[in-house]
């Protein structure tokens, strides 16, 4: 490794491609992780299985071999239906790539859990920024993941999800 001393300080400088944050993409030159980072999406449902299915559908519909990170969460840590602030916060941390996290939820109680967690973001250790997308769960998640996968910022991802409320099915 080449060592360069900036302005006579004597400190070693690590070439960007060898920095710990560099991501190596097969058969390509090193790329910084910030370039690859995208908005993450969290799918909150009362049912873990439903959240997983919605996340899988959104990944498949993203029409991208490398969709934005999506994390399903549902139920309680023990078992059963419901929504958990603990699981929601953990899911948001897992999808965070430094460009924000959009959260979608299914039923009113799950929405209330999301809003309560967002209101106490620091207490829950949420990444910043995290925004709730007031959108239908399936259509909104598909639109959010597609937009995030295409490189949209957090505002564009949330707008795409919320736009699905205005799209008529007939």
Summarize the structure in words.
It is a single chain. This protein has 170 residues and is of the alpha/beta class. Helices cover 40% and strands 14% of the residues. The chain contains seven helices and six strands; from the N terminus they run ββαβαβαβααβαα. The chain has a four-stranded parallel β-sheet with strand order 4-3-5-6, sandwiched between helices. Strands 1-2 form a two-stranded antiparallel ribbon. It is globular, with a radius of gyration of 19 Å. The model is unreliable at 1-35 (pLDDT under 50).
Sequence-ordered SSE layout with sheet pairings:
Elements lengths: L21 E2 L7 E2 H4 L3 E6 L2 H14 L8 E5 L10 H11 L5 E5 L2 H12 L1 H4 L5 E3 L4 H13 L4 H10 L7
Parallel strand pairs: 3-4, 3-5, 5-6
Antiparallel strand pairs: 1-2
Short description:
This protein has 170 residues and is α/β, with parallel strands linked by helices.
List keywords for this structure.
single chain; 170 residues; alpha/beta; four-stranded parallel sheet; two-stranded antiparallel sheet; 7 helices; globular; disordered N terminus
Q: How would you classify the helix and strand content by structural class?
A: alpha/beta
* Total beta strands: 6
- Largest sheet features: 4 strands, parallel
Helical run tally: 7
N-to-C SSE string, H for helix and E for strand: EEHEHEHEHHEHH
What is the rounded Rg?
A: 19 Å
> Helix fraction?
40-55%
């Amino acid at each position: 490794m080449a060592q360069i001393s900036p302005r006579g300080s004597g400190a070693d400088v690590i070439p960007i491609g060898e920095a710990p944050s560099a991501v190596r993409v097969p058969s390509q030159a090193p790329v910084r992780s910030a370039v690859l980072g995208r908005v993450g999406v969290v799918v909150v449902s009362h049912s873990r299985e439903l959240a997983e299915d919605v996340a899988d559908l959104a990944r498949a519909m993203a029409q991208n071999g490398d969709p934005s990170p999506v994390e399903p969460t549902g139920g309680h840590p023990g078992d059963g239906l419901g929504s958990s602030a603990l699981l929601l916060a953990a899911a948001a941390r897992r999808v965070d790539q430094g460009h924000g996290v959009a959260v979608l939820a299914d039923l009113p109680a799950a929405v209330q859990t999301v809003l309560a967690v967002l209101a106490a973001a620091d207490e829950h250790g949420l990444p910043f920024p995290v925004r709730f997308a007031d959108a239908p769960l399936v259509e909104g998640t598909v639109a959010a993941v597609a937009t995030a996968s295409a490189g949209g910022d957090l505002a564009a991802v949330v707008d795409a999800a919320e736009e699905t409320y205005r799209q008529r099915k007939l």
